[in-house]
């Protein structure tokens, strides 16, 4: 059910804290008789750096597991990564953005062993040179550098059990010979994503309740292939191909719906039952190719980087939604309504980027560049509504076709100046200027009033950036950063399609959604590379979100409450947070502890009563609530033997209740345990997640008008995973380079 239950994505994307912490181990490195100490976690200019090369956490884990245990990073849903107060985290490898869409990337991270990672850099407020949106931060994964020719790789197999059983396997290879480097990965997996829902809405006179399960079977096959050739000592040419395929047939939604009518004195007047049965087949393909040229222009590190890319995304979704009445035998066999939906989407994107970095001898760097994106999305939606009378007889068929085409062009340029004034003080200032031109055309022959519509959106944005870092002494460091960003709507959010959940509950996308703006400020203090304090303020303008709107409708002489989740711009929001953290090792490095505690204050300011797409008027929904919430998180790795072969992991997070766009999100917490055994080139690991079964989403909202809305979503996060990882080949092989694709900025918007 990729787009039917958008609530899950909205909920997980709204939990914006739960951070994790660091490891304070100090490693010794001998060079010609001189012993140097290396800090494992430290602040550098515009980023935090976590050195994990010798960490016991890395071996046998997946890259996703390692990221979840990295300082400042967290995941409350095991699907999305967050950076201290950031909704999303973009993944870079060796300073270059990964060339995959967001959903495929998560699967790849979960299948890739973490042994080859040298360090992880966390950029909470990215500079102007990065193509990021809204409050996104960056996670830069720096791979180990290995020196000789040859072939190496690793294999990983895992089996997961929560409500259903799932399995996955991956193979990664890395080959180098003289000037040629070839790297690749292939991953396959099969699982059933299960959820259960309790949905309630209404007033004191009418209430709707829907209870049931969602089962979404998934088969995945994907990977990448990269060819990198060193043309000269100073230039490289590379070709990268990424591919991902997902098949999800026979996804099911089964909900029992109860309608209750009450008298004004509160007594029950009547009760009515029906069932919603949704069956969906969906699959999507994502293929992209990127050509990269890099030229080093001097010995200081100045270089020119040019990319050209093509992306093709194709998704096909066919659903059958039925509303069933009890019938004469109370077996819910009588049809009341049937809606057949065919919702395909095709995206084609051509992209190009040019970046030039000029370094000077006096620690001064100038970065300048530009990017171009040309995207066309084609959405040819077909709906057929079959209407039945109370006796189950077909009364008619109502077709509803909408061919929506969206063309978008983005032009961007940036300029950044970075200066190291002394060993203590450094700073960066820059700006990005973006021009966006878009045109959406909707061809709907059933709409006699406006069978053809054009929606044009053109806007220019100036996005400044400023940061500085001051090392007071070798134990104290302070830094500040300010950035301005924008968020464009995802392509599926713009497609004006209605996704049916029950007869009176649906989600509605919106072609009129405009971009939103975000302004971030962050002040950081670090002590002894072990303790830190982060103060953050974010202001969001024209937030893109779902808004739950209700209204009363009359059907067959009976009053019902209709609930619609409308995708639109919904007012402004402020987030202020303070986070205090510690990362230390104890007992001669037998215990590595990461701990942090934080508080966040949200100020919401949004009002809506009309669906911008259909013009339908609902009861006014108001969210002008303030909330203050707390978060606690700790990750602990315990070494169980002197030989460093047995490890126990104990991880816990708690997120206090907070006000989000959909209402009051109740508290979440999770206790996760793991045990790991390293044996030569093999690693065996067992992970148990959400031991106490407390990571269940609940949202509740009461309006002054008397409307209420309640959501309870259990995604069965309690479960266990057993994995086996094997490393083989010449472990000194290195990649020539990791390449950033020109179409990377588009990938997350296909999700």
Automatic annotation (TrEMBL):
Main location: membrane
An example Gene Ontology CC term for this record: cell outer membrane
Key words of the record: Cell outer membrane, Membrane, Receptor, Signal
Localization of this protein: Cell outer membrane
Signal sequence residues: 1-18
Record carries keyword Ubl conjugation: no
One Pfam family from the record: OMP_b-brl_3
Gene3D superfamilies: TonB-dependent receptor, beta-barrel domain
Outer membrane protein beta-barrel domain mapped to chain residues: 296-726
UniProt-listed PANTHER family: PLUG DOMAIN-CONTAINING PROTEIN, TONB-DEPENDENT RECEPTOR-LIKE BETA-BARREL DOMAIN-CONTAINING PROTEIN
Name listed for the protein in its UniProt record: TonB-dependent receptor
